[in-house]
Design brief:
By secondary structure, this protein is mainly α. Helices cover 57% and strands 5% of the residues. The protein has helices spanning 2-10, 21-27, 31-39, 47-59, 68-74, 79-92, 107-111; strands at residues 95-97, 103-105.
């Protein structure tokens, strides 16, 4: 439920960099908590949501100033956690909206 609230906060504006609510999360860093959710087997069902949140945080104001999430992600040495992060992020976006407006699996599109 908290992950969903963070997702709502992240998408409060159309322009990610115009969302001043994300400044709170730049000051009060939750990187370790997100990585723990991604890495722990007990919370594997939440890994895709945590990965998506982490990606948004990494992209927030990355050209204007130093982004603490990008800096911490570049220093992660836990390879299994990085693998889960990558796979859960990929699986989260493997569904796409087709031309008819229906949600479809993108794997056949990737294989062709």
């Amino acid at each position: 439920m908290v992950l969903q609230l963070i997702s709502v906060i992240q998408t409060a504006t159309d322009n990610l960099n115009a969302n001043t609510l994300l400044e709170y999360f730049m000051i009060h860093n939750i990187f370790e908590a997100l990585m723990k959710i991604i890495a722990e087997p007990e919370t594997s069902s939440l890994a895709a949501d945590a990965s998506a949140i982490l990606v948004v945080f990494c992209n927030y104001a990355k050209y204007e100033k130093q982004n603490p999430y990008l800096m911490q992600l570049s220093t992660v040495s836990d390879r299994p956690a990085l693998l889960v992060f990558g796979l859960s992020f990929f699986c989260f976006f493997v569904f796409v909206v087709s031309q008819e407006g229906r949600l479809t699996l993108a794997l056949p599109l990737l294989i062709q």
